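Morning F.,

Quick status update on the modeling queue. The single chain you submitted on Monday has been processed. Sequence for confirmation:
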Amino acid sequence: MIIFAGCVDDKEYNDNTYNPSINDVNAEKMVIEAGNVHYYEWNSNLSKMDVQFKIESNNPIDVFVVLSNELENIKNDKDFKYYAELSRQNILSYGAEGVVPSNTIIVIMNKGDKDAQVSIKLLAVEPIDNNKGTLKTSVFKNENKNSKANNNQLSDLELNTIHYSPYPLAFYNMFYELGEPDVTYKITNNGENPITIRLASEYQGYSNKAITTETIMPKETKEINQTIPLIKDKIKQIKTKTKFSLHYKVEYDNNGEWKTYDEQTDMIDVYPMDTIVWEIKDDKGNGIPMNEYIAVFVTPKDTSIMELLSKAKERHPEKTLSGYQDEDVNLQIKSIYDALKYDYKVSYVDVSNAYGKDYVQKVRLPKESLKLKSANCVDGAVLFASAIEALGMKPYIVVLPQHAFVAWDDGTGYIVALETTMVGNADFEDALNEGNEELDANWDALNDDDPWNGQIIDIKECRELGVLPME
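Structure tokens below.
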């Protein structure tokens, strides 16, 4: 059995094949006048239902989920039993889910002095797991206190919350070090009195809580960023795309007691440590390019790079690699190229590069490419950039919509490029010519105002911005 509150978009379904979602429900809207109570109920011949709901209001309201036989106690301001896990006070937006008896109702109270414009989405379905028990009730002590002053204060608050998705775990160290936000709160106090708030956010099961306490002065607006500290051992276990439950709560100080103002849980796409996400978006759809973060995969201090340079040094005519102290920079790059070709026997794996706003790309660390003796275009660019940076020189990674390759400053300010995919089947000079031809052919696109046409990523500049190696 499926019960919807409000309307459902037209679609064909039956109880056997249709898997309903709260997102299928169009919100039912109502106005609850100041001081009034609204009762929301549904009918079913089942003993229990799995209920999902989401309620939003323009002014603070209380939401209680109770059994229908508790209505008399509520009307008479007596103590009543309620489902605490599904109920909240003084909220503007709230959603919950749980298994309850079918004679359960939702009580929405407007204790303020302003009418509340309320919308509700509700989905009640027969529980998939019939052995799943119903929630237990608690007793609500109805002290019948005059809370109008408190609600007036809350109605003076304006809250806008922004979060970001997807989450590229490869960047998590840098996000935390640079203070890149997971959640941004913009809070305005339009009232005449200061309001103290407490903000808490977490990725449930994968992080510790980020907690911030702030006092918002009258007529003041504050923008507060929170970066959530992930638990390293937990996220390293993630090997494929998954989802985090982002849970955040906004509370206010009510005479020394914290009360909930807003509480939400949103699902966030998450990519494992071996994947670059070229763009993340806030929940309003605004894009934020992440191109520079390719530098986290460039690991110049890894022991595998030191071993590569040791072999490359033996292939240099002077048996030395001294970076910009040697005028012939290209000859040093050739030594690295030849070591990869003849000592490591690295070959190119024909896997297309996925670069752009809506793409993600798996990237091997240099030590993995050397171990497996293979690399695609991005892997090869990262590998060469790591070796070049280890010599104290200035590497670039050139990314195009379907390709990537490495480049470097030759010591005179001139950028030289190399087609890294040719390392297994061509001489260095041919790969150098091909890289420079590609760079010249795409130069205008690489230097226009649209990074998605292509970009030359300066690894040294990334380091200066704080984007450091993953390892």
